[in-house]
Amino acid sequence: MANSFRAGVLGATGMVGQRFVSLLDGHPWFTVTAVAASPRSAGRSYEAAVDGRWALETSVPEGVRELIVQAVEADAEAIAAGVDLVFCALDLDKESIRRIEERYAALGVAVISNNSAHRWTADVPMLMPEVNPEHVKLIDYQRQQRGWDTGLIAVKPNCSIQSYVSVLTALREFGPRAVQVTSMQAISGAGKTFATWPEMVDTVNPYISGEEEKSEREPLKIWGSLTDGAIAPLEDVTIEATCVRVPVSDGHMAAVAVRFDRPPSHEEFVKAVTEYDNPIRQYDLPSAPQQLIAYHAEDDRPQTRLDRDYERGMGISVGRLRDSTLSDLQFVSLSHNTIRGAAGGAILMAELLVAKGYITNR
Ligand code: NAP
């Protein structure tokens, strides 16, 4: 890829924003040229703005340390003039996020969003690159409807669904019909560390606001079909979710029980997930895992600390495959919530949009 694109990060000082900045360091296609956050951080160097709250083990990348943090809203036009795309990792009310994302897209910027605000907007695709890459075509309609030329909005789904949606997609020939999932979600999913959320040490919290509804509904749009100007969600799969916060720094695990039209044997399950016919393999995208799903036969895998970094945090790990008395099969799956589930997944989406010609140099 000869092209190089100028990228901004909106919400660059937050937990997910930091991941974006760190994953984009040395990226072969994208260079961070703008970092933006609230007026509280604006006007300071990025290094000063994240001082005392940098949450990653790696240090603040050199290329962004001295960039001056701009204000997402007050500096929107100046930011838009200097970027081809922005990654959005803001923590704000949905109405403000919708307004901000639409403003940047109208200014000609490709907006790749980690936020939920536009996930159910009819003309906005919600993408998991290895699952529904064909939904990018909705952007043609979006641009035509809204009069955008280089601007666009594409969103990624919630971090909680990444592992089991990938596995169930690989098993679609067996007709998954009813899915019961309990997710065990890391504290970084709430933008926290143990230092900033000590109450989460040695406890399990059975409630994550809004998470169960997202976990049950979003897969149906992702598996839905592209119609004229919208995605019709899949109707013949039911998902019931319980989402629980656990004392883990990174890594969302899911315990899943599934009823199928034709239950796969254990051999068929393993073959289907490990030989999944990845529809974006031909693009050879820089952030794509070589092998999307790893199967573990050991009784005590996958484990969050041992397996969350599989394929640089972009892969899915699955194991604990067992027959189920109430359903057909049970398994446990795992993905890294701030990499695959947030910043890494969004960067992969942007790479797909470059490969398909939707993001261009302005
Ligand atoms: P966070 O750590 O609280 O960071 C929030 C970011 O938004 C900061 O950069 C903050 O800037 C900025 N911000 C807040 N108010 C603002 C305002 N009025 N104007 C402009 N910028 C403002 O949150 P996070 O965990 O990174 O999450 C960001 C979003 O991603 C959330 O919507 C979250 O639900 C979603 N998400 C998170 C994860 C995860 O694993 N953490 C996964 C998937 C999705 P200041 O530093 O200046 O305040």
Walk me through this protein's architecture.
- This protein has 362 residues and is of the alpha/beta class.
- Helix content is 27%, strand content 22%.
- The chain contains 11 helices and 14 strands.
- The strands form 3 sheets. A 6-stranded parallel sheet has the order 3-2-1-4-5-6, with helices on both faces. It has a 6-stranded mixed sheet with strand order 10-7-11-14-13-12.
- Helix 1 packs across helix 11.
- The protein is globular.
- The mean pLDDT is 97.
- NADP nicotinamide-adenine-dinucleotide phosphate binds next to helix 1 and helix 11.
Short description:
49% of the residues are buried. This protein has eleven helices and 14 strands.
How are the SSEs ordered, and which strands pair?
Layout: E1 5-10, H1 15-24, E2 30-37, H2 46-49, H3 62-65, E3 70-71, H4 76-81, E4 85-88, H5 94-106, E5 110-113, H6 138-146, E6 152-155, H7 162-170, E7 176-185, H8 211-222, E8 225-227, E9 230-232, E10 238-245, E11 252-260, H9 266-274, E12 293-295, H10 304-307, E13 316-323, E14 329-335, H11 339-355
Parallel strand pairs: 1-2, 1-4, 2-3, 4-5, 5-6, 7-10, 12-13
Antiparallel strand pairs: 7-11, 8-9, 11-14, 13-14
NADP nicotinamide-adenine-dinucleotide phosphate (NAP) binds at residues 11-17, 37-38, 40-41, 72, 89-92, 114-115, 159, 188-189, 191, 337-338, 341-342.
